[in-house]
Amino acid sequence: MAHPVQISSKEQFDSLLRSSTFVVADFYADWCGPCHAIAPAYEQLAAQLSRPNLITFTKINVDNQQDIAKAYGVTAMPTFIVFERSRVVNTIRGANPQKLTEVVRKLAAEASKSDSSAEAGESSAAGGAVWYGAAAPKGYDDISDQYDPKGVELLNRDSDFGLAKTLFDSSKPSSLDGKGKGKTGGAPDWIESDTDEQLMLFIPFQSRLKVHSLQITSLPPTDDEDDDETPMRPKTIQLYSNRSHVLGFDEADDIPAVQTVTLDAQDWDPKTGTAKVDLRFVKFQSVTSLVVFFVDGDGDSEKLRVDRIRIFGEAGEKREMGKLEKIGDEPGE
User: Fold this and answer.
1) Nearest-CA neighbor of 146 among 206, 224, 83, 102?
2) Tens of pLDDT along 2-13?
3) Residue 314 is part of which domain span?
4) Catalytic annotation on 67?
5) Within 10 A of 152 (CB to CB), how many other CB atoms are there?
6) What is the CATH number of the domain that holds 47?
7) Are residues 148 and 89 in the same domain?
8) Highest mean pLDDT out of 139-148, 285-294, 310-319
């Protein structure tokens, strides 16, 4: 029987927000009478509805974790906050068991639907549907098809594997059925780096976009004995916007990235091998191209592997291809 997770640090809570699709947080205090009154109902909901990596119930003592309470504007106890993919989607103030039960059961139904959709997505390629390694962010569209296939470039690609456009293939990665080995009898449907672990991907777009987030799928083999040859998942990623061409590796060292992302082991979905990368949306409001620099990986290998990339945001009017506009570049960049 699952019990609520007692939060002992902000780092622990942040980790749970990343690893669980839905998180329910009970902000309480030991001296709070209504908190004690509603605690049995909350415990019962946790026991009935908790699901690993999908729905996690937590308890946060506001006196011991004042920084977390302050971050979410908690001023009265009890307060229950529901998170979906780290974002607040519902807040219940006060000891109202009926309201709490209603909100949490509705959440559980939505979570079951989301989980079923994800499982269906894993086998949808045969029917021609787009495969997703994670749910799309609410309010934003999959704009991966806005990339210009004629202009996309990938530096340091091992020619024994896929092309740059392989990353935007809408089908389910074949490696999900083969422990990272991929399909036999055909070309690998993923890319790997060549001389070292770095990859430089240039993505020009057919329209001016607002880019909200990325999904990156990486499925290294799970049973290879030679760790030096087994490719790694990406760890550090640097993003550049509105460049007119692919950056050289030395060139990237001299140009400040618009955003640097570090992916940890818990960021990768264990079922689909996909990590969600939230961008600083204000920095990516008018984008005509992206450079994605995979700087290093999560181990000591000299190989890096990426199976799929999906882009989410808002598409604008199509522009004439040819000369890419550079927006907001500082002098000397």
Assistant:
1) 206
2) 789 999 999 999
3) 131-318
4) no
5) 19
6) 3.40.30.10
7) no
8) 285-294
Which of 158-163's residues contact partners 24+ apart within 8 Å by CB, and which partners?
A: 158/191, 158/192, 158/193, 158/194, 158/303, 159/194, 160/188, 160/192, 161/187, 161/188, 161/190, 161/191, 161/192, 162/187, 162/188, 162/189, 162/190, 162/191, 163/191
24, 35, 55, 203: which one is catalytic?
35
Looking at the structure, tell me whether residues 162 and 293 fall in a common domain. yes
CATH code, domain carrying 311? 2.60.120.470
pLDDT digits (tens, 9 = 90+) for 191-220: 999 999 999 999 999 889 999 999 999 999
Half-sphere exposure of residue 229, counting CA atoms within 13 Å on the CB side? 4
Per-residue model confidence as pLDDT tens digits over 292-317: 999 999 999 999 999 999 999 998 75
Rg from Cα positions in the chain: 22
Cis peptide before 204 (omega within 30 of 0): no
Question: What distance in Å separates the CA atoms of residue 61 and residue 6, rounded to the nearest whole number?
Answer: 8
Residue 148 scores a pLDDT above 70: yes
Q: Is 32 a catalytic residue?
A: yes
Pick the last residue of a domain from 122, 142, 172. 122
154 and 20 co-located in one domain: no
Identified catalytic residue from 16, 29, 32, 38: 32
